[in-house]
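Hi Prof. W.,

I finally got the C-type lectin domain family 4 member M-like isoform X2 prediction working! I wasn't sure whether to trim anything, so I left the full sequence exactly as given:
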Amino acid sequence: MEKIGKEYNLNVIAHGKAADLMDKENFYDGYMKEVPETQITRKNDGTILEKDITTPGWRYFSSSIYYISTVKKSWIESRKDCRGRGADLVIINNSEEQVFVDVWRRNQGVWIGANDRDSEGTWKWVDGNKVINGFWNPGQPNSNGDEDCAVSGYHPVNGKWDDVSCNYNYIWICEKRLNM
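And this is what came out:
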């Protein structure tokens, strides 16, 4: 990050190159430290996002802030927690964001915002958009029984997605989009 006095240029993070982000160790060490309280940026209209990006326990990446839970709950309870924080379960839009989730899940399964609770086999994000491209494990989603919610890292070594029962307990990641 480029430091300018007590301000940081977050565009370095927001517009980082995918190749740089795919190296998990450098990704973690170079980009994903918890946001320091003095770190601020400005929206296009010049207003400061300090309140959002300095919220304790949240991490900044590519125009969103993320809360990573430390306890395990069901998908429904996890989503309820996110909504109570003014966010929702993470929507993974690209490989860089998938790497972000993979780093912060700390080798545990983590709830993400994909589900087919409304219509079996029709996977949607919590914002109602269809899951077009995903990072599913081979043979997933398989809708084996009552498996309507997606977890990233069901198999801890690879971080890919599986459909599982929404009643299982996992940690979760909330995402709050910043309007920059």
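The radius of gyration is 16 Å. Does that look reasonable to you?

Thanks,
D.
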